[in-house]
Amino acid sequence: MRCFIAFDLPKEIKDYLFEIENKIRDSNAKINFVAKSRFHGTLKFLGDIDGNLLKEVKERLKKVRFKSFKVKLDGIFPNQNYIRVIWIGLKPAGKVIELQQKIDSELLDLFKKDQEFSAHLTLGRVKFIKDKKKFLENLKLKVEDKEFEINEFKLMKSELSKDGPNYFEIEKYILT
């Protein structure tokens, strides 16, 4: 089963991210946007794992101790040289990165360490851009620093379908 570890977002943040998607929808590019119901923050992608490994992952994730914390939305960031993903940054990124590193260290001998983790929320994957300059101009939106609390993370299952991935919660881990 295909699994990942993530934190969920409050409804008002999902609504706001959807508004941003709608503002950049007609931006001279073909973009596969994340559906509003599927917005989340990925902390670690695990890939395909079997039942025995799943059991071990669940036990190890119970050992992660971390205090809940607040973050704010930052800005829209594509990689300007090779635009594949449009994402919203989170600030301060340090707390999200610390949580990710705690999770990574618990699972280190089971999965490779994430080399370049960044605290972000994916809006969409870019398939084709007609006019790069115009496209980048459309992304210069002011993102409100809306704040929300991260007070849990989840082990999730992802099932791919013709309509995109479907996510299912396997287990929830509460931050103190």
CATH class: Alpha Beta
Number of strands: 9
CATH superfamily: Cyclic phosphodiesterase
Which strand order do you get reading across the main beta sheet? 2-6-5-4-7
How large is the share of residues in beta strands? 35-45%
* Helix count, DSSP H or I runs of 4 or more residues: 4
Averaging pLDDT over every residue, what do you get? Answer: 93
* CATH second-level architecture: Alpha-Beta Complex
Q: How far from one another are the termini? A: 29 Å
Shape: globular
CATH fold type = Cyclic Phosphodiesterase, Chain: A
Gyration radius, rounded:
17 Å
Runs with pLDDT <50, length 5+? none
- Assembly type: single chain
How many structural domains does the protein architecture include? 1
Provide the helix percentage. Answer: 25-40%
Q: How are helices and strands ordered from N to C?
A: EHEEHEEHEHEEE
The profile of the biggest β sheet is: 5 strands, antiparallel
Topology:
Layout (H helix, E strand, L loop, with lengths): L1 E6 L3 H14 L4 E5 L7 E8 L2 H11 L7 E9 L7 E7 L1 H14 L13 E10 L2 H7 L8 E4 L1 E10 L2 E11 L2
Antiparallel strand pairs: 1-3, 1-8, 2-6, 4-5, 4-7, 5-6, 8-9
Description:
- The chain has 176 residues and is α+β, with helices and mostly antiparallel strands.
- The protein has one domain (2-174): Cyclic Phosphodiesterase, Chain: A.
- The protein is 26% helix and 40% strand.
- It has helices at 11-24, 51-61, 93-106, 132-138, and strands spanning 2-7, 29-33, 41-48, 69-77, 85-91, 120-129, 147-150, 152-161, 164-174.
- The strands form 2 sheets. The chain has a 5-stranded antiparallel sheet with strand order 2-6-5-4-7. A 4-stranded antiparallel sheet has the order 3-1-8-9, covered by helices on one side.
